[in-house]
């Protein structure tokens, strides 16, 4: 048991309500149900304290919580009635279903099956999307059916009959810390970094040493940079504007989330087209990112310089592909955070002020 719980026995009630919240359906009634449950528990504690004449200890509060039941079972009693899968198992069933479908199946199809299908269709994006979505639908249908069947069998056995007996309030997870907003210092640092990056980008065309270093003596920027230089600069300017607005309007809590998601989507498109352009550079030697400087083409070390350029180009292409995957993952996380923010705001706006938990 944590030290904090020992100093403040009533914290155990808050931890209990937090555990029940996890298993309750995320709808407008969630806060009402938790408020009623919290009021009932505190009433029981007050009655017991009046009866004994002293404040209850952690062990005495644990006994009250044990009589109330395990958080999962309490949530099942408070939630809507189910048929195929009963109220005891349904919260677990719903959690497992979401975990398998959203956090396992979808990422596997996006980051593994999708690219494999794209390679097998010779880069046909339309066919790849249709085939991947069709396979995802079939896989999700089969997975959901198997999970439902397993839980329906468990519902009709005694496999969970002793779940309430084995539950111990001391095993409740600690209270979660409230969500932290992006700090002012962090936003300032991001803004300064992007301003520095913009200045660096504006200097690169006249000072290629800033990107190539000593290799400027025998290398120069390839054609792909001339095509995508302006979009990269414009995206950097947009990022600076986004950060400046976030600093000036800190009360706009949703703005950083959706604007960052929009920035990620644009970045994803830009990186995708850069990879596509690099793959279509087939005329002559393949040097999309860097190429041999004109002044050394007749040099005795031309072959050596060509090898170096080839290694640099392949390395940059691999780096772009890795960036694309990273941006995809970041976009998925940002989408989830935005959806959580929207759902949280809706539940707060629909919650009556008289039943809000303390």
Main traits of this protein?
single chain, 358 residues, mainly alpha, 3 domains, elongated, disordered C terminus
Provide a descriptive summary of the structure in words.
With 358 residues, this protein is mainly α. It folds into three domains: 3-79, no CATH class; 90-169; 184-350, no CATH class. Helix content is 69%, strand content 2%. It is built from twelve helices and two strands, in the order H-H-H-H-H-H-H-H-H-E-H-H-E-H. It has helices spanning 3-7, 11-23, 30-52, 58-68, 71-78, 90-120, 125-155, 184-203, 209-212, 223-248, 255-279, 302-350; strands at 219-221, 290-292. The chain has a two-stranded antiparallel sheet with strand order 1-2. The protein starts with a helix and ends in an 8-residue tail after the last helix.
């Amino acid at each position: 048991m944590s030290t904090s719980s020992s100093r403040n026995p009533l914290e155990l009630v808050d931890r209990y309500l937090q555990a029940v919240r996890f298993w309750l359906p995320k709808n407008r009634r969630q806060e009402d149900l938790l408020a009623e449950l919290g009021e009932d528990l505190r009433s029981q504690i007050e009655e017991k304290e009046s009866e004994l004449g002293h404040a209850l200890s952690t062990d005495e509060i644990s006994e009250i919580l044990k009589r109330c039941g395990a958080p999962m079972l309490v949530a099942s009693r408070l939630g809507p009635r189910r048929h195929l899968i009963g109220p005891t198992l349904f919260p677990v069933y719903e959690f497992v279903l979401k975990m398998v479908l959203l956090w396992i199946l979808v990422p596997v199809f996006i980051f593994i099956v999708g690219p494999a299908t794209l390679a097998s269709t010779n880069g046909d994006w339309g066919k790849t999307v249709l085939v991947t979505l069709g396979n995802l639908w079939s896989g999700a249908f089969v997975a959901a059916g198997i999970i439902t069947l397993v839980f329906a069998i468990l519902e009709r056995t005694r496999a969970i009959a002793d779940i309430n007996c084995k539950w111990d309030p001391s095993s409740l997870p600690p209270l979660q810390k409230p969500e932290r907003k992006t700090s002012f210092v962090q936003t300032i640092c991001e803004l300064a970094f992007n301003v520095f990056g913009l200045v660096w980008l504006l200097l690169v065309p006249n000072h290629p040493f800033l990107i190539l270093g000593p290799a400027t003596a025998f290398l120069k920027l390839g054609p792909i940079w001339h095509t995508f230089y302006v979009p990269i600069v414009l995206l950097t300017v947009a990022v600076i504007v986004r950060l400046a607005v976030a600093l000036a309007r800190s009360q706009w809590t949703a703005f950083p989330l959706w604007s960052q998601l929009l920035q990620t989507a644009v970045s994803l498109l830009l990186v995708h087209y850069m990879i596509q352009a690099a793959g279509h550079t087939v005329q002559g030697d393949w040097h999309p990112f860097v190429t041999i400087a004109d002044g050394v083409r007749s040099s005795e070390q031309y072959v050596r310089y060509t090898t170096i350029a080839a290694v640099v180009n392949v390395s940059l292409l691999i780096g772009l592909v890795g960036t694309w995957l990273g941006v995809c993952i970041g976009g998925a996380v940002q989408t989830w955070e935005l959806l959580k923010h929207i759902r949280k705001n809706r539940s707060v706006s629909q919650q009556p002020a008289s039943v809000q938990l303390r």
